[in-house]
Amino acid sequence: MTQTVRLTVAQAIVRWLMTQYIDIDGTETRICGGGFGIFGHGNAPCLGEALYPVQPDLPLYRGQNEQGMGFAAAAYAKYHLRQRFMFCTASAGPGTANLLTAAALAHANRLPMLMLCGDTFLTRLPDPVLQQLEHFGNPTLGVNDAFKSVSRYWDRITHPAQILQSLPAALATMLDPADCGPAFLSLPQDVQGWAHDYPEVFFARRVHRIRRQAPDTAEVADAASLLITAKRPVIIAGGGVQYSRAVAELAAFAEAHQIPVIETIAGRANLVDTHPLNIGPVGVTGSDSANAVAERADVILAVGTRLQDFTTGSWTAFAPDARIVHLNAARHDAAKHGAQTVVGDARLGLRAIGAEISGYAAPAQWVDFARTARAKWVASVARNVSPGNRPNSYALAIGVVNALCDPSDRIIAAAGGLPAEVTANWRTLRTGTVDIEFGFSCMGYEIAGGWGARIAQTEREPDQDAIVFTGDGSYLMLNSDIYSSVLTGKKLIILVLDNGGFAVIDKLQRNTGNESFNTLIADTPTATHPVGVDFAAHARALGAQAETVSDPGELADAFRRAKAADTTCVIVMQVDPYDGWTTEGHSWWEVGMPEVSDSKRVRDAHAEAEAGRAKQRHGV
């Protein structure tokens, strides 16, 4: 006779999460590191009751905004290379709706995150309830249905027994290398509290392992046949290299075959800056060196990248006749742009292809070209980050931090101009230490993501720092997790680089022939009383130590003080919105342009943009 235990749905979910472990390099660790939660009527009475007794083992971090909670959960998963995740719980209605952007970020970046969100009553007896959306012709439709487009797994729990299938399916999705992404469980308020006799075996301790899919031997052979013909090969290394824990295999493969490596934004820190085959970041926010190699390469081995437009220069960064071999766990990515597909794990795939091309090495002339281009780029970066007699800039701040940080410190940036500047100018001191969120490019990720990364970091490297680069625009959009970091004792070092608005979009406006409009505070026509924000005073009001500096020298001194502090520190410096941008290393990027305009500058910019389209590949 099957042994059962009577639990509510909420209690069963929590108990099941407590018993799921993962084998990471021989150590068994609970997969779920805890959760982020803001309670309301849609989750406090039932899910809150279930979480209360297990706080020591499944900690619940109190967020200040549900979107920030989701960002923090995404950063936590990224730090743990998708081997662990956090859940987010939100109340019915606006609390859950606030998670939408974070879910989209996790979906775009293929990051595991479990959302346990309140919903209206399944019985509908009290309808319409507080915060319920009513669709007159479809009473089953609500806010939670909006998550179907931004979740890899979505389910509404309509009966207690359903979680016997739904929970394992959600976890399988989050741990799958190809389908990894957010899972959403909609929990009607009444169903959360309904009880069921669950089989005890459902809660037995289980150890999971992330699948390493060996690539098909025929695909490996075809890829090898193409690679050994290459006169000018290059490797594009993406974030999937790190998720596969294949950075050592990447370096070994490149060294064995003397193939230059260029990195995507997500793949920054696959190789350290001084590796002789690290030719730099590629694409729109790349480097002259990597882009010079990319446009001349005849065979491109893409590893663990989704080849988004910033990597490919909207598909103009490569020669029209260049052949692509794509090693990726996801078939969807591997098959892009007529690539020779190798569907499988990056570590196993690199080993397999390497064995097939044993003895092959790229021509020395090609390697010398790549290294010479890289040396010129290194000199460019040195100029960018050196003060001289230039106005304050993102690059100068990056250079100060780069020179003073510990090699193991984690760098977090997102959206705006900082991803480009960090990608171009950061010199990687240790592999896997850079998190530039540019998959969904979410303003506001920086501080919340830093908090999530710091939670993960303290589990493994408590003596290292999480260093956040953010602009004033992102700071104003979502800053409340400064308080979260102080409240939870998770120290951050936050650099607020104030350029007076959304300066990178102002630059885009000017570069496309438009006038500055509604981007910089100074050029916002409805800003009739523009005032400067005292970011340091604001940060102090949230409990952080904070100071404002005027130049890179003062920034260096402030950063040293922040490193020595035991609580969150915010350092504010004004930077020039017009001068000091990194002008090198940009490939063509397609943006929507007016075909007809009264402005000659706009018409000229449109013509120039269309001229750049001549190199664009068309899906092959």
Structure explained in plain terms:
Residues 600-620 are annotated as: Disordered. Residues 36-130 form the Thiamine pyrophosphate enzyme N-terminal TPP-binding domain. One of its GO terms (biological process) is L-valine biosynthetic process. This protein starts with a strand and ends in an 8-residue tail after the last helix. The longest helix has 22 residues, at 364-385. Strands 5-4-6-7-9-8 form a six-stranded parallel β-sheet, with helices on both faces. A hairpin with a 2-residue loop joins strand 2 (20-24) and strand 3. With 620 residues, the protein is α/β, with parallel strands linked by helices. It has 24 helices and 23 strands. It has three domains: 4-208, Thiamin diphosphate (ThDP)-binding fold, Pyr/PP domains (Rossmann fold, 3-Layer(aba) Sandwich); 217-377, Rossmann fold (3-Layer(aba) Sandwich); 388-574, Thiamin diphosphate (ThDP)-binding fold, Pyr/PP domains (Rossmann fold, 3-Layer(aba) Sandwich).
Lateral arrangement of strands in the main beta sheet: 5-4-6-7-9-8
Name given to the CATH homologous superfamily of the largest domain: Thiamin diphosphate (ThDP)-binding fold, Pyr/PP domains
Structure summary, number of beta strands: 23
The helix fraction, in percent, is 25-40%
Approximate strand percentage? 15-25%
The average pLDDT score comes to: 96
Provide the gyration radius in Å: 25 Å
Show unreliable segments: none
The count of domains is: 3
Classify the secondary structure makeup into a structural class: alpha/beta
State the end-to-end distance.
60 Å
Largest sheet: 6 strands, parallel
* CATH topology-level name of the largest domain: Rossmann fold
CATH class of the largest domain: Alpha Beta
- Count of discrete alpha- or pi-helical segments spanning 4 or more residues: 24
Specify the overall morphology: globular
CATH architectural type of the largest domain: 3-Layer(aba) Sandwich
InterPro entries: DHS-like_NAD/FAD-binding_dom (IPR029035), Myo_inos_IolD (IPR030817), THDP-binding (IPR029061), Thiamin_PyroP_enz_cen_dom (IPR012000), Thiamin_PyroP_enz_TPP-bd_dom (IPR012001), TPP-bd_CS (IPR000399), TPP_enz (IPR045229), TPP_enzyme_TPP-bd (IPR011766)
Region (Disordered): 600-620
GO biological process, one term: isoleucine biosynthetic process
Keywords: Hydrolase, Thiamine pyrophosphate, Transferase
